[in-house]
Each structure stands twice: as C-alpha cells, then as structure tokens.
Write a structure and sequence with these properties.
18 strands, 3 domains, Rossmann fold, Elongation Factor Tu (Ef-tu), domain 3
Length: about 475
C-alpha cells in the first residue's frame, strides 16, 4: 500500500461506547487505541446502561482479537477481522489495530492546562502526527469540545460518521410520492383496472414505476385525483390498490377521521392486516399517537384482531430527572405516558352515559391497554399484540433491533417519533434507531412508512412549531 495514502484513526472512548463495532468500520485504514481509552473502557464497564454494555462488548471484541498473539504481533499491529457482518454496504475491514505500547514524547504544548483523559488522547495524536509525517493521522471523537481543542493545536479531528444510516435526514424516505401531471399520458396506455370485493385495483406500466417500492403511496394533486398504494412492483409494471378514504364519518376509526392526505395514508397502513410494521414520523401535533391508538382500539375491541394494546417509550426526561418513582412497572411508567392519557380522553369523550359512562369506558380500555417499560423487554415475545412504541427517535439502532425482534406471530408494531426532537446523547437525525428502521425496512412488502407534515393539534401549537 502507498504510505502517502495511508490513514491512521485514533479513536476516542466515546466512539467505542457509542458503537462497539466501530473498530470494524474503517475499511482499509488503520486504527490506534491509546492506553487511556482502555482505562476509560474499564472504568465504564460496570452498570446496566447501554453505554456500559457497549464498553463490555468492545472488551470482548478486543479479547477475541488478542487470543494467541505475541508481543511482537501486537507491536506490529493486529489484523482487524473482515468477517464482521454488520457493515451494511461498507467494504470489509482490512487495516490493522495498533495499541499504545510505549510512551510517546512531545505531547501537548506546555501552556495547555489540565491532564485529563481528553488531553492525554490529544497529546498522543499530536505525537503520532509528528512521528508519522507521511501518514494522515486523524482523531475520531463524538466530543465536540475535544474536536475544537484538536483544531486549536493543529490536529485533524472529525466526528464518527460510520453509523449513519443515510447521509442527510432531508433525503429520508417519506412513503408518499406525487404523480407528475403527465403521468397517465405515458403510463395509461396499457392500464388495466378491476374490482375485487370492495377493493379497486390498477395495473400500470411505464418508466416511472421502476423506482417505486411496495406500500408507497402515490397521488395526484388535484382534488379529485387518484390516491393509491403500490402493492407490487415487477420491472416497469406495478399493481396499485385504491386507498381507502378515512376522511368521512362513515369510515371513521374509533370515532377519528383523517384531517389530511398523510393522516389518511397512515390510517390505511395502521388498519391493513397484511402490514406488520408501521413507522410514523412527524412534528408535534401531527396526530401520530392519536391515529395509532385509535387504530389499535378499533382492531382490538371491535374486530378482535389483537388481544391487547401494549404501549411503551424511552424514558429520557426533558428536564431534570425527578428521581425514584414508586409502584409497579405500570405505575412507574404512567408519568411517561401522558400522551397516552391525553389521547384516551379524546377517544373516549362522549355525552352518552355521562361521567359514569366515561369512567366505565376508561376502566374497560385500561384493561386492554398495557404500559410496559423498555428495560424489561429482553427475552420477551408478544403474540397477537398491537405494540405502540412512542418517542422511538431516542432509541439507538441496537435498541431498536432488540425491540422489533420481540414481535411474535400475529403482532403489529407501530413506531412513532420526531427525529427533530432527540434527547439521547450522541444520537442524531441520521444515526437514531427510527431513521435506521425506516431505511432498512424500505421496500419490505409487510412494512409501511408515512411522514406526517402538518400539525393538527391547534392553531397555537401550529404557529409555535413554526415560529419558535
């Protein structure tokens, strides 16, 4: 390999604690781990948090790589295994892993105060840069302040990008595609249409069809235009089903009607028995929780498709943590489930039966709606359940995988979230678990996604979302 093109990445501890597979994601480039990084991994390995689990996983990876190797092999750099299967489109790793095996002279400038772990890592990187002038040395860290300090002392530093599902959140799949105004001129010549019971089908052919995926919604912008869901695509031919219209009271779902096109598409996905996994993105007040809960109640109590509704969410506080919460698992989760209670009030409001009738209805619904904590999901399997995961943007891809794999036969999982409101440290719009599953499930025949674009909460909430 040309030494002029050689790259050496110095990894900060927070990169490994954020993604324990980071050492496999630098393709043909080399990796360097300072001794202080190993010390910090050791200090953070205890506990039940995601970061602690990741620290332990990194240690296991390193232990596997060091089995049976000699000191001379460690000094020369360990070959990074290329068999790791989680690279998702990246080239297999073929670089080497170097550890700090001796003290490196000439670290930070004398005027830089403090001898913390960040400064030690920075000093190591600066020393490597001086010792290897023909190698492009880069410090990789999730810590913005460390990257700022690195730039000040002349070290190239960058964020960790290898866990990005997509390059830009703006190109995230929306689940909706408008048809061009001249669509039927190029695609209507060999079109077929037929009815099967209450369902209306179309078979269209043409060049625009090749980019479509199953369960994509297509529509014309005119008031009387077609709204359809793509059911199957084969080459340049696609089979469309006319979308059901949930905007009228006659087709309401548990008393709820769609207020815009995207909500109507969302209800089509939520009420479809052939779709097992639904993701709904949208700003505050766009109706994500209300639509999911109404669809769950209709299919659980009216159609008996599911035994019960299970609601859960990530318990990341907006402000200061209020501390210990007494009671059972369900009682501990209730303060986090204000959205559930607020939406249940909307779904159970009725003048029939007065206060006693509303109380009886609430008791009935509470028996069929269970609140569960994500902390106790490992090892569980949910059969014939309608599972609603709220605030899914606060999950890491690994946590999201652990939750999605809990769904058993007959269950439906609905993930709700707003990627503009992420509260979990080190997660971004392009690396959170919700973006991850939207991108990975795109095109699977039994999943669907809709991005809701309009808030329907109130004129005050709509204006606040835009102006504040």
């Amino acid at each position: 390999m040309n030494t002029a093109a050689r790259r050496l990445f110095v990894l900060d501890t927070n990169v490994l604690m954020h993604d324990p597979t980071a050492i496999f994601r630098f393709e043909e480039h080399d990796i360097y781990l300072p001794m202080v990084v190993l010390e910090e991994l050791d200090a953070n390995k205890k506990g039940l948090s995601e970061a602690s689990r990741n620290a332990r996983q990194v240690s296991r990876f390193l232990d596997d790589m060091m089995r049976g190797v000699t000191k001379e092999q460690i000094d020369a750099g360990l070959v990074i295994p290329s068999g790791y299967s989680g690279n998702h489109g990246k080239k297999p790793s073929s670089g080497r892993l170097f550890f700090q095996t001796r003290e490196l002279p000439g670290g930070l400038p004398e005027g830089l105060p403090g001898v913390g772990a960040d400064n030690l890592i920075l000093g190591q990187t600066l020393s490597l840069q001086r010792q290897e002038p023909r190698t492009r040395v880069a410090l990789v860290s999730k810590d913005i302040n460390l990257r700022i300090k690195a730039a000040i002392v002349g070290v190239h530093a960058e964020d960790y990008y290898s866990d990005k599902t997509i390059e830009d959140a703006d190109v995230l799949y929306t689940g909706v595609e408008p048809l061009p105004h001249d669509f039927w001129e190029g695609h209507g010549r060999d079109m077929r249409s037929w009815k099967d019971g209450e369902r209306t089908w179309y078979q269209v052919n043409g060049p625009a069809v090749a980019s479509w995926r199953p369960n994509l919604f297509v529509h014309e912008d005119s008031p009387e235009g077609i709204e359809a869901i793509v059911r199957a695509v084969q080459g340049s031919s696609a089979r469309l089903e006319l979308a059901r219209d949930f905007r009228t009271e006659r087709h309401s779902v548990w008393g709820i009607t769609a207020r815009n096109r995207e909500q109507n598409f969302a209800l089509n996905l939520l009420m479809d028995p052939e779709i097992d996994f639904v993701t709904l993105l949208g700003p505050a007040g766009s109706g994500k929780t209300l639509l999911a809960l109404a669809a769950g109640l209709a299919q659980t109590l009216e159609r008996n498709r599911f035994l019960e509704i299970i609601m859960t969410r990530v318990t990341v506080p907006l402000g200061e943590d209020i501390g210990f919460l007494p009671g059972t698992e369900e009682e501990k989760m209730e303060p986090w489930m204000g959205a559930l209670m607020d939406n249940l009030e909307v779904l159970t409001r009725s003048d029939e039966g007065g206060n006693w009738g509303r109380a009886a209805t609430n008791d009935l619904l509470r028996n069929r709606i269970k609140i569960r904590s994500l902390n106790f999901m490992r090892g569980r399997t949910f059969l014939n359940r309608f599972i609603i995961l709220d605030e899914a943007q606060n999950l890491t891809p690994k946590q999201m995988k652990a939750l999605v794999t809990r769904a058993g036969p007959g269950s439906k999982l609905v993930c709700l979230g707003n990627i503009a409101q992420i509260d979990t440290p080190y997660l971004t719009e392009t690396t959170c678990g919700l973006t991850y599953v939207v991108n990975r499930f795109h095109g699977w025949p039994h999943s669907g996604h809709i991005t809701l674009v309009r808030g329907e909460r109130s004129r005050l909430a709509d204006f606040a979302s835009e102006a504040l």
